[in-house]
């Protein structure tokens, strides 16, 4: 349903992604791993249209979206949870959530679904986003993306800097989204056990290219961690 085909992305003169191809099927969870600086975030930004591809194409459900704005891509059903979460600290939890809706008001079902997924958030709708813990902010960022009912969710290191108990909650929620909504998920993740537990397919990147890929059965922790150690 999402196909990234041989994209090149550069910042000025420095080429970050080179003829990189990644694909995600309907209802599939695909994980992308790799050391810091290999271009994982750049890949998600290129899918979202936040940085341009100088070569290659991005297609959603067979439609070429390479030249569309980020806004148009969001409207077609790509949800994005950026690295670092980007919660608005002075807005309330409820206001942060509503900002994710593609329409002035989200559907009641979408809002109820998100609040049922994250009961903790439901209890703090009036709290300021900036007063939440890192894990709660991550849950809010995921909820904000889900409220637009995306076909595919892009998640950039959702477990980064989060306490283990919340990591388990986030893992359970992603499993639930996969099973109940049959949503596609493209997950950038450094926490390998978590990535292996949830992925159908995985990619390991090195310096802007795919160094290793396979289905979950081929995901061997020692082999993948070999690519990540410095
Ligand atoms: N806005 C930018 N301008 C210039 N270089 C950037 C910019 N964003 C990222 N980079 C560089 O691109 C490379 C890949 O970054 P990034 O995609 O964030 O990697 P990752 O997410 O895998 O850690 C890094 O060398 C980083 O310093
Ligand atoms: Mg990154």
Description:
This protein is α/β, with parallel strands linked by helices and 230 residues long. The chain has a single domain (2-228), classed as P-loop containing nucleotide triphosphate hydrolases (Rossmann fold). The protein has helices spanning 40-48, 70-75, 93-99, 108-117, 119-122, 134-146, 164-181, 192-198, 221-228; strands at 2-11, 14-24, 29-33, 55-60, 63-64, 78-81, 152-156, 184-188, 201-206, 209-215. Strands 6-7-8-3-9-10 form a six-stranded mixed beta sheet, sandwiched between helices. The model has no long low-confidence stretch (mean pLDDT 94). Strand 7, helix 7 and strand 8 form a beta-alpha-beta unit. 36% of the residues lie in helices and 27% in strands.
CATH topology, which one? Rossmann fold
Q: Beta-strand percentage?
A: 25-35%
Helix and strand composition category: alpha/beta
SSE string, helices as H and strands as E:
EEEHEEHEHHHHEHEHEEH
Uncertain residue ranges: none
Mean pLDDT: 94
- How far the N terminus sits from the C terminus, by CA atoms, comes to 34 Å
Give the beta-strand count.
10
The helical percent reads: 25-40%
Features:
six-stranded mixed β-sheet, binds magnesium ion, single chain, 230 residues, four-stranded antiparallel β-sheet, binds adenosine-5'-diphosphate
């Amino acid at each position: 349903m999402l196909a990234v085909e041989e994209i090149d992305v550069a910042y000025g003169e420095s080429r970050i992604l080179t003829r990189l191809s990644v694909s995600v099927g309907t209802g599939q969870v695909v994980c992308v791993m790799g050391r810091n600086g290999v271009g994982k975030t750049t890949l998600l930004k290129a899918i979202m249209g936040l940085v341009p591809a100088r070569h290659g194409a991005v297609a959603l459900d067979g439609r070429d979206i390479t030249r569309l704005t980020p806004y148009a891509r969001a409207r077609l059903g790509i949800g994005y949870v950026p690295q670092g979460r980007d919660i608005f600290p002075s807005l309330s939890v409820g206001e942060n959530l509503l900002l994710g809706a593609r329409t002035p008001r989200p559907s009641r079902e979408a809002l109820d679904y998100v609040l049922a997924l994250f009961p903790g958030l439901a209890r703090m709708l009036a709290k300021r986003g900036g007063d939440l813990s890192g894990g709660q902010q991550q849950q809010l960022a995921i909820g904000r993306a889900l409220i637009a009912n995306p076909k595919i969710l892009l998640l950039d290191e959702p477990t980064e800097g989060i306490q283990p108990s919340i990591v388990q909650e986030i893992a359970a929620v992603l499993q639930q989204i996969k099973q109940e909504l049959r949503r596609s998920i493209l997950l950038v993740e450094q926490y390998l056990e978590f990535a292996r537990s949830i992925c159908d397919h995985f990619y390991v990147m090195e310096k802007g290219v795919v160094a290793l890929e396979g289905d979950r059965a081929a995901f061997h922790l020692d082999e993948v961690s070999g690519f990540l150690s410095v």
